[in-house]
Amino acid sequence: MKLDHHNIKEDGRFTVTNFQCGPSLQLLQEKGLYKIIWCTEGQERLTIDGYEIVLKKNQVLFCTPENRVTIPKENDGLMAFIFNREFYCIQHNDSEVSCMGLLFYGSSNAPVIELNKKDQRSFNAMLVLFQEEFATKDHIQGEMLRTLLKRMLITSTRLIKLETNQAALSVKQVELIRKFNILVEQHFKEKHQVADYADLLFKSPKTLSNFFKKHDVNSPLKIINGRIAAEAKRLLLYSDKSAEEISYELGYNEPSHFSKFFKTQVGVSPMAFRKKE
């Protein structure tokens, strides 16, 4: 199955697919696409930015355009919802959905949520609505598909808050975590210290660190370092840039400092990581 919507005027693209055809798998190689991948049956081994994950039945994975995703040609039980920012802009609609910093751009690793029986029924119902809407060819089809996608994102945002112990936090507290994650995504290449982000949030570094610790969230420094390390691994795996070029791109004035950082985070030197993979 591969259901496509393409608004030629705005270049908005939205696809629902089960990856049972070549063109669907090729979508994963295209740039600028957000990917929501739902395992509906069994389990599948996927590779995200060079690391392997096992996506189990009723788990849903959320990937940004920056994530490199590989799925085996022989797969069964996957369903994906793929779109570009021209179809639905995560940043522009963040005030409505609030998924930035949680579902997208909230971690160095692509997040996964688990669906309980109630959530499964909800996702299955949304899939049916998507299929029905694709069968209706009129000038408001795109808007209806966007509305359904927004519903899926809101449902998923609520679930990830529950699974990351953020449901009990106030709106203001969740917003602080989200804003921190978003700022890291925007500035990790030039800002490497907790103090840099504390300034942007009008907090002291100690206040920020204590808040994350109190609410059982990864420390600010761990989040910053994880994002830098994830980008370094991605560049080492999927580009021809040297370790020195990567170090400068990630804001290190001395390649030796970057190599030391990388070995501390990953366990091997940048070049050893590239050769190993």
Describe the structure.
This protein is an alpha+beta fold and 277 residues long. The protein folds into two domains: 2-163, Jelly Rolls (Sandwich); 171-276, Arc Repressor Mutant, subunit A. 47% of the residues lie in helices and 17% in strands. The protein has helices at 22-27, 94-97, 117-134, 141-163, 171-187, 194-200, 205-214, 220-238, 243-249, 255-266, 270-276, and strands at 2-7, 12-17, 33-39, 43-48, 51-56, 59-63, 69-70, 78-84, 112-114. A six-stranded antiparallel beta sheet has the order 1-2-8-3-6-9, with helices on one face. Strands 5-4-7 form a three-stranded antiparallel beta sheet, with no helix packed on it. A hairpin with a 2-residue loop joins strand 4 and strand 5.
CATH topology (level 3) name of the largest domain:
Jelly Rolls
Give the CA-CA distance, first to last residue: 33 Å
The CATH top-level class label of the largest domain:
Mainly Beta
Proportion of helical residues: 40-55%
Low-confidence stretches: none
Alpha plus pi helix count: 11
Name the beta content range.
15-25%
Mean pLDDT: 92
Full CATH superfamily name of the largest domain? Regulatory protein AraC
What is the 3D shape?
globular
H/E element order: EEHEEEEEEHEHHHHHHHHH
The domain tally reads: 2
Compute the CA-based radius of gyration: 20 Å
Please write out the topology.
Layout: E1 2-7, E2 12-17, H1 22-27, E3 33-39, E4 43-48, E5 51-56, E6 59-63, E7 69-70, E8 78-84, H2 94-97, E9 112-114, H3 117-134, H4 141-163, H5 171-187, H6 194-200, H7 205-214, H8 220-238, H9 243-249, H10 255-266, H11 270-276
Antiparallel strand pairs: 1-2, 2-8, 3-6, 3-8, 4-5, 4-7, 6-9
Helix pairs in contact: 3-4, 5-8, 6-7, 8-10, 8-11, 9-10
